[in-house]
Design brief:
The complex is a heterodimer of chains A (262) and B (280). With 262 residues, chain A is mainly α. Chain A has helices spanning 2-39, 51-64, 68-97, 100-114, 122-129, 133-158, 161-169, 174-211, 217-226, 230-259. Classes of the chains: A mainly alpha (262), B alpha/beta (280).
């Protein structure tokens, strides 16, 4: 009995290792291409710095710790925006899901607004909230609100009515029903909405920092570009990518651990 | 006026159905369906009643009316002398057609949740859950998730959840509907043995003639839609029933009688369906 289980496990592991290898190979060939373009094919360092120079700059940034104020500001904005959009998205999504009439009215409305590129309204946000953190928090909260609220609605209405009927037939009160049936049933879809919301909040905050801001990681990158410190700019880009990837994998891991319960 | 027959039957009538009719949709609309027509019946305490009939004849509708999941258009149902106007978790436990175990909980968590819903003191949960699992032979699978079990085991687990609620009445809507013939036979045998011990009143809906004869004390045969009870057939065979009952002449006689009763009704349903699809 244990032999076939073992065999499928190792086949699974084998496949996972292989796909990791392909992913690593992709990143490595990008780095190699970067190296060849700048060191061998003679691309101008004003357009693309040499990777080894960017790496030196990165080490300098990490050693000096000069990134801390920008990083903390951007992460603070992200936390603020996500806290707002999560609270409103979950609460409003739950309330809409309570009635099929509300769902019919609000779901298409929210889905329609979600399709609008809200980043276009950045100038308005800056007018209302200024160039500081508030406008980034407001914009990030607006943009990430939509995937969260839509997935919350979808999550709650996807819960099989049979589970609800079964729970009611056993005498479940509305609060008990919510806690033991509706929330666990809706959780996988809600969590994927939260992950999407988190990703777009990060994107829109860094994006708006590059357009209209006084500080933050996005602002720092644009600033370096304007002063033609291209190698240092690339170092910051790599830094931001690493931060974003770390945050993303943390959120994904959280999501996976919750939906593995099934 | 109707008080005196109710009083004389009070001791042994557990579920009483009085002139129950039910329609789905609004009258005059194309989607309006009369599912159940003027049904009256008494089900005795400790009895195992099978409801059998063509698809759409209102068997499940009647079960849902008794269970308080559905309010009938007219008529009333009462259980243990109380008239039904919503779920009665202390009187009735339900085993649903499909799998109504919560997939995000383990088997034992599912059983404990049922008791939590019903309001059983927490201290009793563990013991009663283990007992119910033991009764259906699933003790070793307490910590498995429903998806890790076979269809037959899931249905046993659903039965264990219903048993743990310790209600006098259990309603089952095609409990073995999704299972293969062999599994159904074994489960039917187990169920017969289990229920003869507990003395519960059971009403179950089935499509299987054999299952109805094998398990039931009485079989209510429904007409085609709109459904009414056409005939009630007593089986008169003590529980627990052995598999050998299935090959007896008595079993086959009853099964054939059921087949004859149902055959005409099923014909009607089939011609009704083809008639209405021609109309579209």
């Amino acid at each position: 009995m244990s032999a076939p289980v073992k065999a499928t496990l190792s086949a699974d592991q084998h496949e996972r290792r292989l796909s990791r290898l392909v992913q690593l190979g992709f990143v490595a060939s990008l780095a190699l291409l970067w190296y060849l373009a700048t060191n061998v094919w003679g691309m101008s360092p004003l357009l693309l710095p040499k990777p080894q120079n960017a790496f030196e700059e990165l080490l300098d940034i990490l050693r000096s710790g000069e990134f801390w104020p920008d990083l903390l500001l951007t992460l603070g904005e992200l936390a603020g925006a996500f806290a707002i959009s999560m609270t409103l998205g979950l609460a409003i999504g739950f309330m809409v899901s309570l009635s099929p009439v509300f769902v019919r009215i609000f779901e298409p409305l929210l889905a329609g607004v979600y399709a609008v590129p809200i980043i276009l309204f950045l100038p308005l946000y800056v007018l209302f909230f200024g160039l500081g953190a508030s406008s980034k928090i407001a914009l990030g909260a607006t943009i990430s609100f939509f995937p969260i609220v839509l997935n919350t609605i979808a999550g709650f209405i996807s819960v099989d009515k049979l589970y609800v009927t079964a729970a009611k037939s056993m005498g479940a009160s509305p609060t008990v029903l919510l806690r033991h049936v509706l929330i666990p049933g809706a959780l996988p879809i809600i969590l994927s909405g939260l992950r999407m919301g988190f990703t777009v909040a990060l994107l829109s905050i860094i994006g708006s920092e590059t357009i209209a801001s006084l500080s933050g990681l996005g602002h720092r990158i644009v600033n370096l570009a304007e002063s033609l410190e291209i190698a240092r700019m690339f170092a910051y880009i790599v830094f931001v990518i690493a931060i974003a990837a770390t945050l993303n994998s943390m959120v994904s891991r959280l999501e996976a651990s919750r939906s593995l319960d099934k | 006026m109707s008080a005196s027959p109710a009083l004389t039957n009070k001791q042994d009538v557990c579920v009483h159905i009085q002139n129950v009719s039910h329609s789905f949709g609004v009258e005059g609309q194309p989607k309006h369906v009369r599912a159940l027509l003027d049904t009256t019946m008494d089900i005795h305490r400790g009895e195992l009643l099978a409801l059998i009939g063509p698809s759409g004849c209102g068997k499940s509708t009647l079960l849902n009316v008794i269970g308080g999941i559905l309010n009938p258009t007219t008529g009333t149902a009462s259980v243990n002398g109380k008239s039904v106007d919503g779920p009665m978790p202390h009187d009735i436990a339900y085993v649903f057609q499909e799998n109504a175990l919560f997939p995000w909980n383990t088997i034992i968590e599912n059983i404990r949740l049922g008791m939590l819903f019903q309001g059983v003191p927490k201290a009793d949960h563990e013991g009663r859950a283990r007992e119910a699992l033991q009764a259906v032979g699933l003790s070793e699978f307490a910590d498995h998730y429903p998806a890790q079990l076979s269809g037959g085991m899931r249905q046993r687990a659903a039965l264990a959840r219903a048993l743990s609620l310790d209600t006098p009445v259990v309603l089952m809507d095609e409990p073995f509907g999704a299972l293969d013939e062999q599994t159904r036979m074994v489960l039917g045998e187990d169920l017969s043995a289990l229920l003869s011990r507990t003395g519960k009143t059971i009403i179950f809906v089935t499509h299987s003639l054999g299952e109805a004869v094998f398990l039931a004390d009485r079989i209510a045969v429904f007409t085609a839609r709109p459904g009414r009870i056409k005939e009630v057939i007593p089986v008169e065979e003590p529980h627990p029933r052995k598999a050998s009952f299935m090959t007896s002449d008595k079993f086959n006689g009853l099964r054939n009688r059921l087949f004859d009763l149902l055959h005409d009704e099923i014909r009607k349903t089939v011609s009704l369906t083809s008639g209405s699809s021609g109309g579209f």
